[in-house]
């Protein structure tokens, strides 16, 4: 049951690790930068969802509001980054 509550946090950590690995692979010349940026955008998206989930578990109202705002901002940034890179890949 405890792992179910931390699903978004685990996904954020996994995608952050995949981002670091894909940056290394990019510098070796095996993948395109747009694929790295898509993974980075997904990492931001999952981090934002994790932040919103954390805000819902906090009792303090001012801290909860700030965490939720940061989470929403991260979700928006992640969606924009991923969408722009996917459009660039498809062109």
Can you walk me through this structure?
Keywords: Membrane, Transmembrane, Transmembrane helix. It is a single chain. The protein has 91 residues and is mainly alpha-helical. It has one domain (2-90). Helix content is 88%, strand content 0%. The protein is built from four helices and no strands. The protein has helices spanning 2-5, 7-27, 33-57, 61-90. Helix 2 (7-27) runs antiparallel to helix 3 and helix 3 runs antiparallel to helix 4.
Overall mean confidence score, pLDDT:
87
Number of domains: 1
- Count all strands and give the number: 0
Main sheet specs: none
- Give the helices and strands as they follow along the chain: HHHH
Helix share of residues?
Answer: over 70%
The whole-angstrom Rg is 15 Å
What is the overall shape? elongated
The helix tally amounts to 4
Beta-strand percentage range: under 5%
Class by alpha and beta content: mainly alpha
Q: Unreliable runs, pLDDT <50, ≥5 residues? A: none
Distance between the termini: 43 Å
């Amino acid at each position: 049951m405890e792992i179910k509550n931390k699903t978004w946090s685990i996904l954020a950590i996994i995608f952050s690790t995949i981002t670091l690995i894909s940056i290394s692979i990019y510098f070796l010349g095996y993948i395109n930068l747009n694929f790295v940026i898509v993974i980075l955008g997904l990492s931001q998206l999952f981090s934002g969802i994790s932040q919103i989930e954390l805000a819902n578990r906090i009792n303090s109202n001012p801290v909860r509001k700030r965490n939720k705002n940061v989470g929403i901002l991260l979700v928006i940034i992640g969606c924009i980054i991923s969408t722009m890179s996917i459009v660039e890949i498809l062109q």
